[in-house]
Amino acid sequence: MDGLRLRLVFPPAATAIHLVPIWNLIKFMATPSTAPALFAGGLLGYVMYDVTHYYLHHGQPTSEVPKGLKKYHLSHQFRIQDKGFGITSSLCDKAFGTLPPLKLSN
After folding, report:
1. Closest CA to 59 of 80, 51, 48
2. pLDDT (tens digit, 9 = 90+) per residue, 66-77?
3. Backbone phi, psi, residue 10, to 5°
4. Cβ proximity of 69 and 88 under 8 Å
5. Residue 84 CB: number of other CB atoms within 10 A?
6. Quick check: helix, strand or coil at residue 96?
7. Comparing 1-15, 38-52, 53-67, 88-102, which segment has the lowest mean pLDDT?
8. With 0-12 CB in 10 A as exposed, 13-18 as middle and 19+ as buried, what is 19?
9. Could you give the CA distance from residue 19 to residue 25 in angstroms, rounded to a whole number?
10. Smallest Cα–Cα separation from 2: which of 42, 58, 40?
11. CA distances from 85 to 41, 47, 96, 105, 106 (A)
């Protein structure tokens, strides 16, 4: 059960299954020379997102940027669940109006 407690990323086997239709969609929409680059870039972005999410829960950041990301993400997890969906950035929360308030009003 400890393995499940620590799992904060999408299971690799399920990821592989989902990648087949994504690859086919990219091949359909892109040229043969750009499809591998688009697929690899998307996959790298997803892996970086998952690694960052795992680190924000289990890592002990020492510099300001990761500390801020951890505080921002844990605020979404434990304080205001319906705001602050961005894990690696607050950019989308600003764009979609889901930016959490700095302080909760009592």
Report:
1. 51
2. 898 888 888 877
3. -65, 135
4. yes
5. 20
6. helix
7. 1-15
8. middle
9. 10
10. 58
11. 22, 17, 10, 20, 23
Residues sharing a CB contact under 8 Å with residue 2, sequence separation 6 or more, in sequence order: none
pLDDT digits (tens, 9 = 90+) for 33-53: 999 999 999 999 988 888 888
Residue keyed to tokens 């997890």: 77
If residue 26 lies in a helix (H) or strand (E), which one and from where to where?
Answer: helix 12-29
Question: Whole-structure pTM over 0.90, yes or no?
Answer: no
What does the alpha-carbon distance between residue 36 and residue 23 come to, in Å, rounded to a whole number? 9
Q: Can you say how many angstroms the Cα of residue 22 is from the centroid of all Cα atoms in its chain?
A: 18
Tokens for 74?
A: 């844990």
